[in-house]
Each structure stands twice: as structure tokens, then as C-alpha cells.
């Protein structure tokens, strides 16, 4: 790990994320687009530095909001491909029937609606990096095609007969434990081994010690710089930053700072979400849930999901249908709520 990169001030990351430069809090190290000085982050920087020098496929594993995409971006930026494209694809957001055409492209008339031939993400990312987020959400059938493309470095457009040579470096990510995903038949074992030539772990915020305050201060500094303001954290806000578990990780904390910044005159207060949620739990009126103005979206979603589940007498299938989400999504959400309720000391 070149120490000069770590010691460099925040301007490098600010340049790479296209943000206005804000002075970096003392003690906060920056590496590529990532910020953090805890041991787990320093180890991660070392690993990124190594993998960036190679063409190896990497699999980034970590909870939601821990910075997996930023890690992928940083690998790309530090690699020989940095002048090429970086294309991020959320595999979980593309209907399974379309993913093959999205990744590999399609020829005209290859399926209903394919009026024009079109290149896919593998072609667009040529000379650069293709970041496949939520790779386990692709069905096993599509995973076979992906594996083939990775193994042979070649693929066909859907409906195409000419083999295309891929020149994209693939980095994948998942917020599931890959071994568990294999056991649950969500991830093909052969694909896991192929992707995880170089496994990387995005550590959750709760393992990053004093990075929590430093990162929050960094986000506040950025907001101050962007808004020509000079707001500061209250003592209570600093307590919350240290003691709250931040189940949504960096994303949740960053959004909490943003919300608190908007609400604050000069002193930015950050109420402990545990306490605030207990005090403000939405009143349920018959079939309606009253959600307070300013309730974080994730919390509003939780209240709607739980109230609908109750309304449906605990029938998860009906609940998922009523909410217009897949049963899998509902189970995921309920699992998260259970973990949070019984979670580590807040
Ligand atoms: N180390 C970090 N330094 C600065 N900002 C960070 C860091 N880690 C994450 N962030 C910020 O947190 C947010 C979430 O990051 P990112 O989208 O990379 O997470 P993710 O793990 O890919 O999330 P998901 O699992 O939901 O896809 C972004 O706004 C990102 O800029
Ligand atoms: Mg992501």
C-alpha cells in the first residue's frame, strides 16, 4: 500500500467522486473514493491495491450500504483500466428474462420487442470494468451463461451467431454470505469459485470504531462546503454516532447526517434512531398507518410492512401480494427487522 496515497488529503477522493473538496477531518484517511482509518479499512485498502494491479475477477461481500460499489469503483480507478468505462449493473433490478440480453446484447428480432440489435453491458464495458451488483439475484440458468463468458472470455448476443470476445474485467458483489447462497441454491458453486478468485469483504460500520464519527464529520464537512454553511454536531449527535448500531451502515448514517443537516440551524442534532423510533412509533388507525413527517423512508417502509402483515393475519404470501413485492423480498425485510430488534447492544 503506497503510504503517500493514504496520507494524501481528501482531494483525491473528492476529485474521483466529482464532489466539491471539503477539508478532511484530522485522522481520517482517504483511499480512492473510500474514507476510513480503522484497521479493517486499512487492510481493505491493501487488498484493493493488490487486486487492482491484476485482471482477476473479484467478489465483494458485505452488508447493504457498506460501500461495495465504492470499493469496485476504487479497484477500477487504481487499475490499468482506469481510463476505460466503469459500468455498474444491479442484477437484482433486472427481470430475469431480460438479464441475458442486458448483459450480452441481442440481435434484431431475437425476442418480442427486440426491434433493433443492441450491444450489452459486456460490450459497453470493453476496456474497462463491469460491476455486477447483487449477482446472486440472477437465476442459476443465467448464472451458467455468465460463468461461460467468464471462463472462455467469449459470449454470443441473444439470437446472435457471431462469438464476441469480451474485454471487460468483472467485479461482482453480494450482500449474502456466498457459502450460504450456494447452500440455498441462489449461487452456483462453480460461479462462486470463478468470481471469488479474489474475495474482498466490505466491513460493516460497527466494526470500524472511530471511523463512524470521522466519516460523519466528513459528510457534514461536505454538506457545509456545498451549502456554504458552518454547522457543527451537538454533543448528543456525537453520542449517537458512537453508540447507535447503524444497521443500514454508511448509507444510513450518511442519510441521517443529511437529514439532520437540513433540519438544523447551526447545531446539528442526530437523535438516536432507536429512541426516536420508540417515541414516534406510528399510530395504527384501523387499516391505516400514520407516518410522521420526516420519518426515514426505511422506517416508514418497516411500519407499512409490519402493519400489512398484521392486517393479513400473518399470511406472508398475501402480504407480499398486497405490497407488490416478491415473497423473497418480504422475507428479506422481515429477517432484517428481526436482526435489528434482537440486535447487538445499541
Ligand atoms: N468508506 C466510505 N467512505 C465514504 N463514503 C462511503 C464509504 N462507504 C460507503 N460510502 C457511501 O455510502 C453509500 C453506500 O455505498 P455503496 O452504494 O457503495 O454501498 P453498497 O454496499 O454497494 O450498498 P448496496 O448493498 O445497497 O448495494 C454511498 O453514498 C457511498 O458513497
Ligand atoms: Mg451496491
UniProtKB/TrEMBL annotation:
<dbReference type="InterPro" id="IPR002078">
    <property type="entry name" value="Sigma_54_int"/>
</dbReference>
<dbReference type="Pfam" id="PF02954">
    <property type="entry name" value="HTH_8"/>
</dbReference>
<keyword id="KW-0547">Nucleotide-binding</keyword>
<dbReference type="GO" id="GO:0006355">
    <property type="term" value="P:regulation of DNA-templated transcription"/>
</dbReference>
<dbReference type="Pfam" id="PF00158">
    <property type="entry name" value="Sigma54_activat"/>
</dbReference>
<dbReference type="Pfam" id="PF25601">
    <property type="entry name" value="AAA_lid_14"/>
</dbReference>
<keyword id="KW-0805">Transcription regulation</keyword>
<dbReference type="InterPro" id="IPR002197">
    <property type="entry name" value="HTH_Fis"/>
</dbReference>
<dbReference type="GO" id="GO:0005524">
    <property type="term" value="F:ATP binding"/>
</dbReference>
<feature type="domain" description="Sigma-54 factor interaction">
    <location>
        <begin position="34"/>
        <end position="262"/>
    </location>
</feature>
<feature type="compositionally biased region" description="Basic and acidic residues">
    <location>
        <begin position="1"/>
        <end position="19"/>
    </location>
</feature>
<feature type="region of interest" description="Disordered">
    <location>
        <begin position="1"/>
        <end position="22"/>
    </location>
</feature>
<dbReference type="InterPro" id="IPR003593">
    <property type="entry name" value="AAA+_ATPase"/>
</dbReference>
<dbReference type="InterPro" id="IPR058031">
    <property type="entry name" value="AAA_lid_NorR"/>
</dbReference>
<dbReference type="InterPro" id="IPR027417">
    <property type="entry name" value="P-loop_NTPase"/>
</dbReference>
<keyword id="KW-0067">ATP-binding</keyword>
<protein>
    <submittedName>
        <fullName>DNA-binding transcriptional response regulator, NtrC family, contains REC, AAA-type ATPase, and a Fis-type DNA-binding domains</fullName>
    </submittedName>
</protein>
<dbReference type="InterPro" id="IPR025943">
    <property type="entry name" value="Sigma_54_int_dom_ATP-bd_2"/>
</dbReference>
<keyword id="KW-0804">Transcription</keyword>
<keyword id="KW-0238">DNA-binding</keyword>
<dbReference type="InterPro" id="IPR009057">
    <property type="entry name" value="Homeodomain-like_sf"/>
</dbReference>
<dbReference type="GO" id="GO:0043565">
    <property type="term" value="F:sequence-specific DNA binding"/>
</dbReference>
